[in-house]
Amino acid sequence: MLVDSLNRPIRDLRISVTDRCNYRCSYCMPGEGYEWIERSEILSFEEIAALARIFVRLGAAKIRITGGEPLLRRDLERLVEQLSEIPGIRDICVTTNGSLLARLAGRLAAAGLRRVNVSLDSLDPERFRRITQNGELRHVLDGLFAARRAGLGPVKLNTVVVRGVNDDEVLDMVDFARSHGFSLRFIEYMDAGNATDWQTRKLVPQAEILARIHQKFPLIEASGAEASAPATAYEFADGAGSIGIIPSVSAPFCRGCNRARLTADGHLVTCLFSDRGHDLKGLLRGGAGEERIAGFIESVWFCRSDRYSEERFAAMNSDEGYQAAARRKIEMIRLGG
After folding, report:
1. Cα separation, 162 vs 156, whole angstroms
2. Residues near 61 by beta carbon (within 8 Å), at least 6 away in sequence
3. Tens of pLDDT, residues 186-225
4. Is the peptide bond before 218 cis (omega within 30 degrees of 0)?
5. 222 Cβ contact partners less than 8 Å away, ≥ 6 residues apart
6. Residue 59, preceding bond cis, omega within 30 degrees?
7. Helix, strand or coil for residue 195?
8. DSSP alpha helices (H): ranges in 150-278?
9. 102-108-110-111 Cα dihedral, nearest 10 degrees
């Protein structure tokens, strides 16, 4: 089994299919100066599938398709179909803002998609429009219910909680998810990419989110969760489902991270907070065979020692403090979540 320097295997592969997005969320979208990936540099579906087969050979069993906004990639169901035919893949998921999901959910499900994660940071139409800068909440809600009708499940909601922006909606989000049978994950506000002007005062930590929920909906920490899962899972005491919280800032989980990331332009990235990737597209388009590419991936993963969130946590609790802008990172829209 292939493991890195901290004994972490590859189990999950996150594949970004585009760096384009029809939203402009401030915690994700970079400002001026970002160089968009040229179309010719974007991996084709066939190239993605070829690389995915190698990652599966090396241990990956779950694939998540990301962006940018992945549903902007034309004929995405073709990629889903190709990936679903690879022996050894147990799960294929798409993370999306949901704006195009209503018209595409059926086609994606028919192609072999198992489930969707949908970003939803507000249930107030005006606030949603401000956060996304041009999004219509009704389109996302239509997409959620279309996904469920198409048999995609669980339909999971991802909510990034930012103090002073949407933290007053925590209970509203819980109510909504419980009422409609959706799975819900709250995500601590992170310093991903370089666009966020991230500050600790905007962070709502896991403990505070839990305390707010527990006052109205008593929670019990779920047992049996995968050690590598980024979310800490909790069940409602009344049996009406569960929620998860991703505490990347306040309770780092680097030691259990088994996720490899493939950018839209074909670079292997070993951490969400990396400042560089490793070029697989060059090998693939240069005629390298599967053995050579697999060997290159093995060499990169074997040397992997990323634990950025743990280092950030230590710095935040030191006399020197933590400065998010001190380290440049690959932008989220290029890397995917």
Report:
1. 19
2. 11, 12, 88, 89, 90, 91
3. 999 999 888 767 888 999 999 999 999 999 999 998 876 5
4. no
5. 233, 234, 235, 242
6. no
7. coil
8. 170-180, 206-216
9. 170
Encoding tokens for residue 101?
């999901």
- Determine the length of the chain: 337
Task: Output the six-digit token pair for 225.
Answer: 């969760």
Contacts of 337 (CB under 8 A, 6+ apart): 14, 66, 95, 158, 272
Residue bearing tokens 């899972």: 233
Residue 252 neighbours by CB under 8 Å, 6+ apart = 307, 309, 310, 312, 313
Per-residue pLDDT at 213: 97
3-state secondary structure of 244: strand
Place of tokens 């599966």: 56
pLDDT top residue among 126 and 32:
126
- Which residues, including other chains, have CB under 8 Å from residue 276's CB and lie 6 or more apart? 269, 330
For residues 116 and 151, the answer to whether their CB atoms sit within 8 Å is: no
Q: pTM for the full model?
A: 0.95
Is residue 332 within 8 A of residue 192, CB to CB? The reply is: yes
CA dihedral 209, 248, 121, 113 (to 10 degrees): -120
Provide the b/e sequence for 2-38 (b: ≥16 CB within 10 Å). Answer: eebeeebbbbbbbbbbbbbbebebebbbbeeeeeebe
Share of the chain above pLDDT 70, in %: 97
Distance CA 18, CA 12 (A): 19
Q: Which residues pair with 15 in a beta bridge?
A: 65, 262
Predicted confidence (pLDDT) per residue in 39-60, tens digit: 999 999 999 999 999 999 999 9
Check pLDDT > 60 for residue 227. no
